[in-house]
Amino acid sequence: MHALQYELTFPADYDMGIIRDRVARIGHLLDDWDGLGFKTYLMRERGVDGSPVNQYAPFYLWNQVEGMNSFLWGGAFQGLVNDFGRPVVQHWTGLAYEEGGAAGSAARVALRHRRPVPEGVELSEAMEEAAREAKRLAGLDGAVCAAAAVDPRHWELVHVSLWDHEAPKEAGEVFQVLHMSAPERDRLPRGRQW
């Protein structure tokens, strides 16, 4: 499992209706993408749910690296690059994935929490804890799913969880889910990924 995200941050007075319209127009294009567990079309608006910025930040969980590479190098990603410029694409190795009690519900909100893996910690223990945290989040009321991943280049952990209502009072950034393409969500491996 591979996690991927890019962020487009816009000026404070940017009309986020442009992003909503874009997702409504093209969001369905990945609904049948080979190798894609799911893509959530995430957006934050300045002043909503504590967000300091206007931002479009899709998050992906890939079952297969070939599907991810086909998306990035095969032309689909180029449309975004043509419209907004080439963003930094963050990539993490999957640690854990869990379906929540609200797995059959539509995701309305996403919660993302990033944190560094501190120097001097036992890596196996840090990764085990990250996997346990994904399971804990998935067990909370209203959880659609939760994932944990790590970037070993920058030693950063990320947890992303999806919710069928407002996000729980947990650490992290809150995003609106505008659309979810989930062609192979049922094939995402459950639990710890090693």
Report on this structure.
It comes from Streptomyces sp. R21. This is DUF4865 family protein. This protein has 194 residues and is of the alpha+beta class. It has one domain: Alpha-Beta Plaits, CATH 3.30.70.100. Helices cover 23% and strands 37% of the residues. It contains 4 helices and 11 strands; from the N terminus they run E-E-H-E-E-E-H-H-E-E-H-E-E-E-E. It has helices spanning 17-26, 65-73, 76-84, 123-138, and strands spanning 2-6, 8-10, 36-44, 54-56, 59-62, 89-99, 109-116, 143-151, 156-163, 173-181, 191-192. An 8-stranded antiparallel β-barrel has the order 1-5-3-10-7-9-8-6. A hairpin with a 4-residue loop joins strand 8 and strand 9 (156-163). The chain is globular, with a radius of gyration of 16 Å. The mean pLDDT is 96.
What's the quick description here?
It contains four helices and eleven strands. The chain is an alpha+beta fold. Strands 1-5-3-10-7-9-8-6 form an eight-stranded antiparallel beta barrel.
